[in-house]
Design goal:
7 helices, alpha/beta, eight-stranded parallel sheet, 225 residues, single chain, TIM Barrel
Length: 225
Amino acid sequence: MNFPENYYLNFHVHQQKPAENEIVIQSLFLQDDLIVQHSDKIFFTAGLHPWHADILVRAEINSKLEELVRSKTILAIGEAGIDKLKGPELKIQEEVFKYHIDAADKYNLPLIVHSVKAHNEILKLKKETKSKVPWVIHHFNGSKQMAFDFIENGFYLSVCHHIKSSKSKLSEYFCDLPIDKIFLETDDFRIDLKHLYEIAALKMGVNIDTLKQQLMLNLKTLLNE
């Protein structure tokens, strides 16, 4: 895929459209009618969000993902994962998440992970399943120890507005994260992506262009391109 290095990459959104000089990766809900508008600035992932984990059965999940992969609509599986604060019982969430792990390995696509109060469970599943594809924790806001535990086990971390919040520990140690293992995203929040890049670049001690080029390189590496 052709990702221009001078664009801002917004790694995870839902409905947001790209502004000038931006590329967005929209996360589609698998249970919806997945009518997508192809563009050279909008790319897609798809999965059954843990909040909706009891909506589809395994055969439906597999069928929908297979069609999206076959039609080359998506570049990654997910978001899927575990949320201890919302959604059906954890046993169902974990079972459905495992379906997505299997699909990601089957199609050799990265896995976008939703993890709320479940970082230990996610890390344990990564080790137990011996998944061969890279996983990305989207909207990560955990401790420094957990961040490096994830990175040491082959994860990428996609971070949001917490890097600018004085109430978040992430803002304190963000500068210590390896720049080749991160992404920036706005998720569902009304955040100025360019301002987020300014904050990240300042904390990392690099200029904006270097950060844009590196995150685009991270995407290409993630996708094995």
